[in-house]
Amino acid sequence: MKNIPHPTRGMCLFKRAKVLRKMELFQAALIVTLTPLLLGCPSAPVNPARLGGPSPIHVLGAYLHDPSGMEFPAQLGAFERRRILRYDPDANEISVRYDLVRPGQEIAATVYLYPCKGECGHFAKVLEREFDALKTQILSLHPEAGLLYEGDMQLEQDGKILEGKKAIFRFEDVFVFRMEALLSQAYIFKRGKWFIEYRFTCPQTEYDKVKGEFEGFARSFRWPGTRRKKTLSPGKGK
To answer: Which residues of the chain fall below pLDDT 70?
Structure first.
């Protein structure tokens, strides 16, 4: 594991993961939904105390993240949006949770969106730095987790092939109120100044049946820099 260049980064990753994990456990006790998912940390430490902790964003219908132009619909195929959290007052750093629940197929999916901080010029080096941070954060939540795979990946978005990183972990945890072996798959990409992370967690016994949903889910989003053009209302001029 490579060392992370910021000395305060590991503490940020651990504290944020611990706080958010408690929030997810509380949510699972109130509604019958999926178990807590691995929770992310942005490119540089933020101060959750300014917000009293991660703050929910309440919105009906599609949520447009104004700083990036990325849109998060309430429904994305079979996935239903469950929760939006912001980690700074201006909502530059957010996470959006989706669940897929159908007989024999259960996936917890979370998208993390945050801007690059510090050195952002060298694409490969910066992406590798964030990938190391992602793996460290997951292992801080699940020290017993086994890293089954890590490497490069590609994803088609808006007709372009984009380069990213992918990791797969195995660990045991409670999922839909049952302790069982889980597989968690993480992607990370960089588009302009923005990092986009996807986390997918499901029971190991269901992985072969549901893994095809992961990339389809990720491809469904329009990333920063690809904001849809506004449609003119009938009767309006050009």
So the answer is: 1-52, 225-238
Q: Please give the Cα distance from 54 to 107 (Å, whole number).
A: 23
**pTM above 0.85?**
no
User: 190-216 burial, b for 16+ CB within 10 Å, e for fewer?
Assistant: bbeebbbbbbbbbbeebbeebeebbbe
What is d(CA 188, CA 131) in angstroms, rounded to the nearest whole number?
A: 7
Write the DSSP string, 168-215: EEEEEEEETTEEEEEEEEEEEEEETTEEEEEEEEEEGGGHHHHTHHHH
Task: Evaluate whether 14 touches 82 at the Cβ level (below 8 Å).
Answer: no
CA dist., res. 28 & res. 32, Å (int):
6
Number of residues that this document lists for the chain: 238
Using the 8-state DSSP alphabet, how is residue 48 labeled? G
Evaluate whether 109 touches 33 at the Cβ level (below 8 Å).
Answer: no
